[in-house]
Amino acid sequence: MGSLFRSEPMCLAQLFLQAGTAYECLSALGERGLVQFRDLNQNVSSFQRKFVGEVKRCEELERILVYLVQEITKADIPLPQGEVSPPAPPLKQVLEMQEQLQKLEVELREVTKNKEKLRKNLLELIEYTHMLRVTRSFVKRNVEFEPTYEEFPSLENECLLDYSCMQRLGAKLGFVSGLIQQGKADAFEKMLWRVCKGYTIVTYAELDESLEDPETGEIIKWYVFLISFWGEQIGQKVKKICDCYHCHVYPYPSTAEERKEIQEGLSTRIQDLYTVLHKTEDYLRQVLCKAAESVSSRAVQVRKMKAIYHTLNMCSFDVTNKCLIAEVWCPEADLHELRWALEEGSRESGAPMPSFLNIVPTKETPPTLIRTNRFTEGFQSIVDAYGVGSYREVNPALFTIITFPFLFAVMFGDFGHGFVMFLFALLLVLNEDHPRLTQSQEIMRMFFNGRYILLLMGLFSVYTGLIYNDCFSKSVNLFGSGWNVSAMYSPGHTVEERGRMALWNDSIVRHSRVLQLDPSVPGVFQGPYPFGIDPIWNLATNRLTFLNSFKMKMSVILGIIHMTFGVILGIFNHLHFRKKFNIYLVSVPELLFLLCIFGYLLFMIVYKWLAYSATTSREAPSILIDFINMFLFPTSQASGLYPGQEYVQRVLLAITTLSVPVLFLGKPLFLLWLHHGRGCFGVSRSGYTLVRRDSEEEVSLLGNQDIEEGNSQAEAGCREVTCEEFNFGEILMTQAIHSIEYCLGCISNTASYLRLWALSLAHAQLSDVLWAMVMHVGLRVDTTFGVLLLFLVVAVFAVLTIFILLVMEGLSAFLHAIRLHWVEFQNKFYVGAGTKFVPFSFSLLSSKFSCDDGVV
């Protein structure tokens, strides 16, 4: 608990690493995650550092591993499942691993290239076979093509073509055949007509089946075309147009014998290619399966090796270039483990001289380290989202574990809804080691990371639901109501009681739309309900008025207690940072201001509950009127809550009035008195500088940087400052701004806690409306169709309850609970201006390997 209450003490240490043992020592440190390294080469570019060559080698290995994973994924070979975390490879094995990976890459690229080439040839031969089969129906006669070829008899009568002229010029009839994509066929035909001016004849036929494109691998619908033309010039134009439209052109046989010979040759070659391609794929799959066994572990090793060299680049060499010097932040509790890790690294490397560390005094602010576990991690994340805590200040997460789910439950109070949320969170907690949950989508991962928050939110909602006696907007009668209706009937009372009390009779019961229970009548109110709200209020017409009054007062009470607790936690910060004057001049006036006004309001609420019973409730004065009269000093004497109330209120108001100037001027004047009246501690008037300080109070007078609450340099060592750094005007302005913000904030923050009442009312009313519009309708249907309809009604009610009341209303209450902690609670004591401790740890690297990983 000590670590969660306040961040751990840190120290700055220098590591002296022998050049031959630095790699092994950092490997041992990375496995344990003990220290955070400081960059000692900030002025040196990344390309000029000592180990840039080793980093480039790791990046080359990463590139090879990315290629391997892509090929393994493409071959549908599963990667090993589960966590893999081998240690960083020894330096002796790095070159061997690099050679193996490079050799494997070359072999894979060669086999893959041959496979793609064989596959492309196979697809081209298949296309050629389909083209020959389809174009056979285009030609009727299997003779040598002469100038008087009669396959197109209509050409002799065509007015556009002078056939006899073409014959005299010696032009021969030529053919171009191939395949073209379906979407390009129309544009291709128009282009041929325009360019060749009608001296071509195009014949199309659609293939029955879709074929794979040899270039892209896509399954495409193809058209087979046959183009007839005269002359070589037109033939050149036709071929260029085919190239422009990416047509797959194949030789066209001149005779039937040639066609038959080509088809037989194609059939033989296709069979041979199938055989060779299958053998190539089998060999490639064997290589990839063998590579898949070790690719995950090698990827993790390369990640660790690269992280080590990146960290070594942050170290500096001594003058002999034989020893590396590193500066690290380390928790004081882990110093013995740090020494043991250095000894282990030196022992593994076989160095004769072990590496060692030296504690360095420093004035710099250490990073903040708060150790968490699975349970506390989610609550710490809520606090860190506001700001990482300053070094050694009080951590609100310890108290947030209770206050956050409780304030959420106040706004979400419903036994049924809370129980559903609790079951959902319990399911996540019981299956938290399931790999599918840790690798789920973003929204589901958010629920999983906050499973313990949801668990407590649901549990506390069950508790507040029992207090409100709400279960899906309905009350549950567990202990029996404390109200007795039969006692209101007049036959059960004497004649004197009938005349004095407003009792019921048969006429009133028959003709009155509303019946009122009078708790002053003997036997009507038998005592309070043992736990929570009496279920009879669920039937009352003034139920909303009663619950609003109860929840509004409860919200004010919880808010004042919450804020007061925040101010008290600030005292612990002042004590720890040795700023005792802040306790008397800041915290005490703040507490007096808060308690004399709003604490007194809390007292009046509780006193009225205890002092007045049902019989004297009509005589009870209004708390609101009394609270307003506290500031107005009315001349008329009104009956108060208790004797001497007027004098008590005047004393409290006087204390409040006196605390304001103390809050505004106390601290600045005290520091000014220290500065002028008592001199500068250890500093003479002639301008010598301070070389030592004994407490924070002695240095705070010398500069405004040291008088801010929660100053992260409260525990720094020696520092030189001059007397001239003291600026009274700036200190006074800073304190005035803080005081105005606090005084106005007490009013606005108290009003802000009324959101507990507002959201609780909204949740209850929305739940009531959903029950009335859905479940109530289904339950009113007669038994003939009611059973069948009830299943549908329950399903609709469950869906609307989950998505509207649990998800949307739960998210709204969650955000409001965060706001109450960040603004109303934490700003009373929490600065949140620190930097998070980020250790050099291999556990921060992803242990899962994926081809989509940004690193590998």
Automatic annotation (TrEMBL):
GO process annotations (BP): cellular response to increased oxygen levels; intracellular iron ion homeostasis; vacuolar acidification
Keywords associated with the record: Coiled coil, Hydrogen ion transport, Ion transport, Membrane, Transmembrane, Transmembrane helix, Transport
Location, primary (coarse class): membrane
Membrane topology, from the record: Multi-pass membrane protein
Any GO CC annotation of this UniProt entry: plasma membrane
Pfam family, one: V_ATPase_I
Mitochondrion as UniProt keyword: no
Parts of the chain that traverse the membrane: 406-430, 451-468, 554-572, 584-607, 651-674, 785-808
Gene Ontology MF term list: ATPase binding; proton-transporting ATPase activity, rotational mechanism
Coiled coil regions, renumbered to chain: 94-128
Subcellular location: Membrane
PANTHER family in alphabetical order: V-TYPE PROTON ATPASE 116 KDA SUBUNIT A 2, VACUOLAR PROTON ATPASES
Purpose of the protein: Essential component of the vacuolar proton pump (V-ATPase), a multimeric enzyme that catalyzes the translocation of protons across the membranes. Required for assembly and activity of the V-ATPase.
Protein name: V-type proton ATPase subunit a
